[in-house]
Amino acid sequence: MLDAEIIAVGSELLTPFRQDTNSLYLTEKLNALGIEVRFKTIVGDDASRLIAVLGAAIKRSKWIFISGGLGPTEDDLTREVVAQVLNKPLHEDAATRRRIEARFVRVGRSMSPNNLRQAQVPEGAEVLENKNGTAPGLWIEHEGAVIVLLPGPPRELEAIFAGQCLTRLELLVPKTIRRTRVLKVIGLPESEVDQRIAPLYTAAPEISTTILAAPSGIEIHLAASSADEAVVESSLAELSEKIEAELGDSIFSTGGETIEEVVGRYLVLRSKTLAVAESCTGGLLAERITQVPGSSNYFLGGAVCYSNDLKTLFAGVPAELIAEHGAVSKPVAQALAIGIRKRTGASIGIGITGVAGPAGGSENKPVGLVYISLADEHGVQVREFRFPGDRDRIRQLSSIAALEMVRRRLRD
Ligand code: ATP
Ligand code: MG
Fold first, then answer.
1. What is the mean pLDDT of each run of 10 residues along the chain (412 residues)?
2. What DSSP element (H or E) covers 193?
3. Which residues contact ligand 1 via a Cβ below 6 A?
4. Neighbour order of strands in the sheet with 369-376
5. HSE-CB of 155 using CA atoms within 13 angstroms
6. From CA 134, how far away is CA 91, in angstroms rounded?
7. pTM of the complete model
8. What is the largest CA-CA distance in the chain?
């Protein structure tokens, strides 16, 4: 079993201000080689804690990647701790010392002596040259395990990994092909998705299946690896087809597309254009639609009709209709959709009105009540939603629901 673990060293990574992104980069690259990451640890710049973490890692993992703490300052302890735990004395590497000195000459700065700590190398370690900084990486083989030390700055870590670790790993790891597939689901709760597809994925143990909550709904991540590419592809395709058959058109994408992209593709395919009149989403729907490059081919634009007066002025919603039913109502949502369609000449008009909260809710019209309407040449439809969550979530869910209404309209 090719099991790896990653140790991210740095006290700043234990604060709310900095995130460990190096391990995400490393995990993606290692997975592609067929190496699974089984543990990740974040540890502060503290020798005794790092000794404990490294001690545990050596007992359980074949590959250990340590990021950070290789620099010249007092709190950079990784090199010394690793040398101590592995019982390998440090000595100065002449070539590394020359490179560090030359780097300071090149950038025209004088070098403080503590920089030479970075030329210290544990016995038997290979130096991984760092072209973007002073601290080199180190590759250490120890009792069947491989321990790789990489500098913390992502630019340096990534360049060293890609330039010098990948080829070494490829030589040591049996060749495996890993493929992934993401099925995106909309409109079904996670528990229902899991209940319906569990019999399918438990029958395919060679595929690792993960169900994740994503902003636009649920994502089903499938991953498989094997030495044989055809085997990987066909097992992924088989499970994917079974899941698609089970969940039907609740799946809007199998190739990584977002809901905005899918809607855009349909609009182009059907030669339709779209315009929106948004109240409670305040332009969020237009923002999402225009995230897609090329959206100018089908998105005409929209109006943020926040006040009652602007609903009338921009989308032609009769003032009497608002007075009679209230701004958050089915008839007003319909009038927004019909009005913006007429005003812009779009094939499809969308109207959104609702109570995003936290204030403004009432017994009849609680926070989360949203009406979304779609008008096209066939007529006008309107749906009532009761979205959970805070203001931001209600606005996000509203814009996604509107996109989903367009998708369903165009798919039929
Ligand atoms: P340096 O020579 O720059 O001191 P170093 O190997 O000692 O390199 P650190 O001092 O631990 O690395 O971190 C340097 C910078 O790299 C920090 O500012 C930090 O924000 C960033 N960094 C460190 N670890 C990570 C990580 N795991 N993910 C993302 N960024 C990181
Ligand atoms: Mg440092």
1. 89 97 97 92 97 96 97 92 96 94 90 91 95 94 95 97 95 88 94 96 94 90 91 95 96 94 97 98 98 97 97 97 97 98 98 94 94 98 96 96 97 81
2. helix 190-202
3. 8-10, 12-13, 18, 20-22, 67-71, 76, 133, 135, 151-154
4. 299-304, 274-278, 348-354, 369-376, 379-386
5. 4
6. 17
7. 0.74
8. 86
